[in-house]
Amino acid sequence: MKAFFVAACSLLGLGSPVFAAEPPESRCFGKPAQGRIEGAWRLPLFGPNFQAYSVLGWALGRSYVHSRVHRVILTAYARLERPDSNFNYIYGETGLEAGGEFWPHVTHQNGLSVDFMVPVRNERGKPVDFPGRVWNRFGYDLEFDAEGRVPGYRIDFEALAEHLFELHRAARREGIGIRLVIFDPALTERLFETRHGPYLAKHVRFLRRPARWRHDEHYHVDFKVPCS
Length: 228
Known about the structure:
- The protein is of the alpha+beta class.
- The chain has helices at 2-11, 55-59, 67-80, 157-174, 185-191, 197-203, and strands at 27-31, 34-38, 41-42, 46-47, 50-52, 64-65, 89-91, 113-117, 120-122, 127-128, 149-150, 153-155, 177-182, 218-224.
- Strands 10-9-12-11 form a 4-stranded antiparallel β-sheet, with no helix packed on it. A 3-stranded mixed β-sheet has the order 4-5-7. A 3-stranded antiparallel β-sheet has the order 8-14-13.
- The longest helix is centred in the C-terminal third of the chain and has 18 residues, at 157-174.
- The protein is globular.
């Protein structure tokens, strides 16, 4: 699937942006639910072990983030790139180039909010791409049960926990933080049972009550960056 994705993007003239010179740092204003951003950086469409949730969504400019968040995300993916890991991580929607209202999301307005689709395995236990399709709204309409399963797939909680662990470490090295993670409360308890679970429970703040939307097929991360 990844090879097909990359080949299709090449035919369409899309690819991973390479900066000739690093652009200026971003400036964020307000809060995730009421804000904007100047100088946002666009996440790459794909990389060695990750890709966007949708070529269309990326082409429509729905994958912009604050420069410091951009570095954190790519650093975490780089840390996860190992010969013994076969996961192709999928990031979801982030925000617009200038921020502001981002339908249908309530937040994602100042470049600090990022959705990550859950890493999954198939029925044989093999890591596979998240099953986001046009007809299930690129995966946002999937409904995982209390054990983290949908027909044919199950969440790999170890891989999910390792990703959050690397995000947190990368954010600390960048001098910022993670303000909040939104993930289904029942599935969060499964997350805490993993190897990195105790670390996450201690160092990362999770929304412990049900959110307006369930957040079972993705985990929403709000980063903590000083904004005007």
